[in-house]
# Entry
Amino acid sequence: MPTNPPDEPAEPLDRAMNGYAWATQATSVALSMVMPIILGAVLDRYLPTKPWGSMLGAAAGLTWGIWRLARLKPPKHS
# Structure
């Protein structure tokens, strides 16, 4: 009976679910990097803080994104 390596899903549906799980995690990390920049730009637009809101948002987004990448784990599926 052939066996698959432990890192490789057994069936195509499992592979698709694994791919969707990784895509979800990647989107989440990307949004965690981009959203603070957008919020900083919005603050700059309505408050006299230009360009500090965007710069603080970029620094926060980069820091948060790297932290999320460092904690990224393989997705679990049943």
Remarks:
- DSSP finds two helices and no strands in the chain.
- The chain has a mean pLDDT of 87.
- The first helix runs from residue 12 to 46.
